[in-house]
Amino acid sequence: MSNKNKKLYRICDALDCDLEGIYPAPKSREKLNEYSFFCLEHIREYNKSWNYFEGLNEVQFEHEIRKATTWDRPSWKFGTKRINDNYKFVFDMFREDTQKKKKPIDKELLDSWKILELNPESTIKDVKKKYKTLAKKWHPDKTLGLKKDIKKNNEIFVLITKAYEKIIKSFNEKII
Ligand SMILES: [Zn+2]
User: Any idea what the Cα angle at residue 19 is, between residues 25 and 125, rounded to 5°?
Assistant: First the structure.
């Protein structure tokens, strides 16, 4: 099957899920302008486990977002818009940033495919499956406790995780 026949859509970021990821959610408190995308079920789970914005008043909310973004957007002023507009701004900013990063040949991405022992023809399902297998195999807890083994496993674990994230991101960028 050629790539053209594959249905391209952003897939849910939950590891065991291959539904469409429609709903954006900040990756962490520190990275409010980096988004994961989830299906309905997993965005509900996410919202349940991370009630971050709940209980913050508008000033606190702005402070938190500003903290996470001022390093590259110093002129961004809050307080003149309602919270929903500010949310929208973060979403738009995320889209802009993703588009800017597009490059014709991405060597890091090719390396990532090699690290996961897959190739760019592989499906996102293959990628998730392979990552799970490798992550299990190289998890630092899998050693017998020797310091050098833990260090080695840790290095490989970080490497495959970075490769996995890079590839997932590349799938998502095809859609924007
Ligand atoms: Zn899902």
Answer: 105
Give distance in angstroms: CA of 37 to centre of ligand 1.
9
Percent of the chain with pLDDT over 90: 16
148 shares a domain with 88: no
Task: Look at residues 75, 69, 71, 109 and name the one whose alpha carbon lies nearest to residue 91.
Answer: 69
Neighbouring residues of the ion ligand 1, judged by CB less than 5 Å: 12, 14, 17, 19, 39, 42
Please write the tens of the pLDDT for every residue from 83-126.
444 455 555 555 555 555 444 678 889 899 999 999 888 888 99
Ligand 1 center to residue 23 CA distance, Å?
10
- CB count within 10 Å of CB 137 equals 12
CA triple 122-123-127, angle to 5 deg: 80
- Residues 62 and 129 occupy one common structural domain: no
- Number of structural domains (the chain) is 2
